[in-house]
């Protein structure tokens, strides 16, 4: 077994969000020198159960192994059916396990991606459950940096208390970039109200929910700013299709309709 290869794969697995619990099994599998093998990982997000199967393949020319992909099987507590998606491992910024869960929940994740020319660019990525690619994958819509979604500006339109403190503001934005459904304190009529927010890059805004996870109209969520005469207009920009490629509070899952179980890959 190649020790440097093991160290590299161990770190790759760790920083893709699977921790260090698979280290022993990873080494044992590599020592067996089979052409390919898988590792299993399971995690709970609230009442949702996500099972990941990590796939490794041995090089045809050497004893080196490669971490190629991981498949997530998401079983929601309120659904008898599961949702499956395979995420490929790239040399650049991999989609972590938690980000994969957030994507499968329908939320958007902000990533540094690399194009075919090796150039790095920033983009919001969001799963399209209505369309699959030739491999049966749910496609990912990309909203590039030139698309014009400004997270800080979108947040600035809302009366959120955390925005008044630089550190809290930074933490809030970083959590949203990971695709989390994040709690926030709204100032309404001199009172503090806890609500939940998520990014909506397609419409260049923020989705707001109450504690019962009921969507709140943006005009209502603006509170005092709306009363002072600020008008809200929501312009539906045409979708841009792209190439496929955590001190955070536990996410509160949103109910999303899934009509059937599908095996897909990004």
Automatic annotation (TrEMBL):
Query: Where is the region Disordered?
Result: 216-266
Residue ranges annotated as compositionally biased, kind Basic and acidic residues, are 216-240
What highest taxon heads this organism's lineage? Bacteria
Compositional bias segments (type: Basic residues):
255-266
Q: What's the name of the protein?
A: DUF3945 domain-containing protein
Which organism was this protein described from?
Flavobacterium frigoris (strain PS1)
Upper classification of the organism: Bacteria, Pseudomonadati, Bacteroidota, Flavobacteriia, Flavobacteriales
